[in-house]
Specification:
Distance between the termini of chain A: 25 Å
Shape of chain A: globular
Number of strands of chain A: 5
CATH superfamily of chain A: Bit1
Order of helices and strands of chain A: EHHEHEEHE
CATH class of chain A: Alpha Beta
Strand content of chain A: 25-35%
Helix content of chain A: 40-55%
Strand order of the largest sheet of chain A: 3-4-1-2-5
Oligomer: homodimer
Largest interface: A-B, 26 and 26 residues
């Protein structure tokens, strides 16, 4: 498969919130559905991602500021990006931004923005 | 909100596979999108779940056998249920069944099937 055409979704997780593993998993569920709903409006993007097995990669960041900067940069270059705001009934304050889904989209573009982040 | 009408999605995670937290989060992303896609075909179910903030709960089970039994029982009573089979490029054998999403659907029905499971 041509790397330039490879499609993926990255889930950037707020590591500073110290969420439990089940909480993180549920937030990544929210983020994935949010990204999927945006992708439905771009059939070619969705098709490419499905052809790549709906690849999902979990990465970590250290602050809300850093996450929002990634979100804005992603949107500025035309990528799908979706931030999850948690209802905050457990573990985090209401309205906390917990995970940012960037993509689905071309791996090379996503790597430009998130390539420096470590795997979660 | 009436408990009987409360809608949720549970993500039943194979605890015996000893997946890392990032792996589990990505698998729950797959499971959530899979369940969402099935829910799109049942607009009333989807609407109810969205009205409840797309509640997602992570639970754990101890074997593939137990997970598949939950999946079959859920389907038998008419609930949405979706099992994730992992491509197995990391951590687990190819084709491993990692997470079962049950719902979205009425909390009382889902609790009948999964109420005995512990939170992940």
């Amino acid at each position: 498969m041509d790397h330039e055409n490879y499609s993926k979704l990255v889930l950037v997780i707020r590591n500073d919130l110290k969420m439990g593993k089940g909480k993180v998993a549920a937030q990544c569920g929210h983020a994935s559905v949010g990204a999927y709903r945006l992708a439905v409006k771009r059939p070619n993007v969705l098709k490419a991602w499905e052809a790549c097995g709906q690849t999902k990669i979990t990465l970590k960041c250290d602050s809300e500021e850093q996450m929002m900067e990634l979100h804005q940069t992603a949107k500025a270059i035309g990528l799908i990006s979706h931030v999850v705001r948690d209802a905050g009934q457990t573990q985090v304050a209401p309205g906390s931004k917990t995970v940012c889904a960037i993509g689905p989209g071309p791996a090379d573009q996503i790597d430009q923005i998130t390539g420096h982040l470590k795997l979660y």
